[in-house]
Amino acid sequence: MQETILSVGIDIGTSTTQLIFSRLTIENLASNYTVPRISIVNKEVFYRSGIYFTPLKSQTEIDAAKVKEIIRKEYEKAGRKPEDLQTGAVIITGETARKQNANRVLETLSDMAGDFVVATAGPDLESVLSAKGAGSDRLSEEKREVVANIDIGGGTSNIAFFYKGIPKGTACLDIGGRLIKVENGKISYIFPSIQKLAESHGIQIQVGDRACEKTLYRVCEYMAQQLAMALYIEEPDGFHAGLYTNNGKPLPRQPVIQAVTFSGGVADCMLHEEEEVFRYGDVGILLARAVKNCSAFEKIKIYPAAETIRATVVGAGTHTTDVSGSTIRYAREKLPIKNIPVLKISEEDEENPVLFAEAVKKGLALYESEGEPEQLAIAFSGKYHTSFRQIQELAALVMEGAERVIKGPYPLILVIENDIAKVLGNALNVLMERKKDVICIDGIHAQSGDYIDIGEPVADGHVVPVVTKTLIFNS
């Protein structure tokens, strides 16, 4: 049994805006006489938009109307309507996520994106999505090596590294092609950290200066060197720690990175020489040369990326969706639901029955508005309650801790990592005499601060598509 759902990925980046449409094929991999085991078995991109410069009203404001017009036209070219889509993601990335009206832009796009498309931003998620779009996770699995991807965009460089297909760490640096802009032969903008980086090496550049190719290439060489330091190919210098976006953390030193792929707009420029170095109004082409010529990267393997400039949008359109199924319980009429905040119960609290119920109560209090509980999802591992008796006990603890939700207007939503959702949902239905809607899904990992979308059932009702995301805007 196979079923296809349609997904869209929309990436509004520092330099470019683009989108893709893809087909995700769901199949039951279990035999006829076993519990259904349904997975996404194929992902196919069937439409790629043109690549547009992200329209801005100013250095601090995105032109939401023009972004929406770009996306509307591309929907028409693809022959798709918002209601055709079951899942996907809108990603505002890099420097663009720091614009004053990033939230408002997402609201403007919500009616174009379909009922189940989510709006996400955040350097950790962007790093993983671009790496998956570049194929670095697959390479790490096939080669049995630790493979990192550096997605070098206009405003940031997002890094994620994998071992045997499993992500081991992410980081994001303020290094990108549009952190120095050039107009009419003069420097029109310099990102403060990049100006300080230049000064630390005795290079004085100011807004209004003539754009000297030789001088700006030297700055780009130091930017490339900082990327090598982020992978520990070279030992980080005293300036390095200040380049992480929002005072973020560097990658862990272990496991040692053995290979790298490059994606993003700058990586796309690395594939072909450009004579007109300022043709894009920035130093992206010079940065591409500097990274390509950086001797530090000769110390490790370099693999070609499956995608370069489209890596993030491909990741957004094909890697944000998971499926939960076969052992779940849901109220069909309540789906789809989207942008539900997640309350994650720690394993320490989950292991202790008294602490579990109390942690749920305290957590719910944080999500109250004017004394009334808001709609949310309660997440936990489920690994401490696996027998029938333990699950009955867990149902009673959920009843105790989530009493205010049960008495409120919203369904009780539980997100569990272990495969106990159906049994737990049945136990709760019995305890509540089926007077409360319960949505209980499993096989999904979520953390406090995440938001979750649960789509309409597919595959004959056996599964629901799920997107977990973080609505974080760099500030």
From TrEMBL:
Cross-referenced InterPro entries: ATPase_NBD, EutA, FtsA/MreB
The family database entries (Pfam families) matched by this protein are listed as:
EutA
Q: Which domain of life is it from?
A: Bacteria
**SUPFAM superfamilies found in the cross-reference section:** Actin-like ATPase domain (SSF53067)
Among PANTHER family, the record links this protein to: CELL DIVISION PROTEIN FTSA-RELATED (PTHR32432), ETHANOLAMINE AMMONIA-LYASE REACTIVASE EUTA (PTHR32432:SF13)
Q: In its UniProt entry, what is this protein called? A: Ethanolamine ammonia-lyase reactivating factor EutA
